[in-house]
Amino acid sequence: MNYDAFVRSIKFWGRVTLFCALILSFAPAAYLFFSYGLTPDVESLLKAVAIISSIMVVSWLVEPISYFPILGLSGTYMSWLAGNISNLRLPVSAITQHRLNVEHGTPEGDVVSTIGIAVSVIVNLAVVFVFALAGAMIIERLPESVISAFDYILPSVFGALTMLFSMKKPLLSLVVISLAVGMTVLGVSSVIILIICIFGTIAFGIVMQLKNGQPESASGRMENKA
């Protein structure tokens, strides 16, 4: 199978699985409606939608754009279906590609990301199953200092990823870190900082790439290797 056929297959099955997940997410509400005739109050439902939308609208726009270069096409479909993107799927994808010395955004990187994320889903399900059975009992026996340390897991993961990418693209990393620190000192809203850092980094990366020469297309790379 060549890379173009791989992409077509991923697009088809990715859309099918996400559509099935969308339908199944309404299954509990549909069961309550058809079995017991229960319906939510429209006003309360609209208020809940407004609250969730106001909180998540930035993530809906920013995360697919900022995560896609690392996750790849198939990794994006799998991650949005499985969840735990920023704290699990993204680090797994990035570190797997780094360890196998493949470039992000290449066909090789896409395949490696797919394998890494698929393994993480299986391991995650196994761990969740164990902790669902015995997790509460284990956590109750942990000291308070260990439990409070869980708050630092996500910042630690992103700190490690920052160093990983800074070593590959030091100039690009210097620009985005300077932007983030500068706007934080000025008291800019965190939402604005997020948007400017992501799209500013994308723009600066494109300028750097154009300055160094146009990148070769994915299909071209695969044909040359063949």
Mind explaining what this structure looks like?
With 226 residues, the protein is an all-alpha fold. It has three domains: 1-60, no CATH class; 72-153, no CATH class; 169-226, no CATH class. The protein has helices at 3-25, 27-36, 42-82, 85-99, 107-140, 144-149, 153-168, 170-185, 190-212, 218-225. Residues 215-226 have low confidence and may be disordered.
Number of continuous helical runs: 10
Report the biggest beta sheet as strand number plus sense, adding barrel if it closes. none
Question: What percentage of amino acids are in beta strands?
Answer: under 5%
What is the number of independent domains?
3
Low-confidence stretches: 215-226
Distance separating the two termini: 12 Å
Q: Compute the gyration radius: what is it?
A: 21 Å
- Give the total of beta strands: 0
How would you classify the quaternary structure? Answer: single chain
Shape label = globular
What letter string, H or E per element, gives the SSE order? HHHHHHHHHH
Structural class: mainly alpha
Compute the average pLDDT: 79
Helix content: over 70%
Characterize this entry briefly.
85% of the residues lie in helices and 0% in strands.
Record keyword descriptors for this entry:
membrane; 226 residues; 3 domains; disordered C terminus; 10 helices; globular; transmembrane; mainly alpha; transmembrane helix
Task: Provide the fold topology.
Elements (H helix, E strand, L loop, with lengths): L2 H23 L1 H10 L5 H41 L2 H15 L7 H34 L3 H6 L3 H16 L1 H16 L4 H23 L5 H8 L1
Helix pairs in contact: 1-3, 3-4, 3-5, 4-5, 4-7, 7-8, 8-9
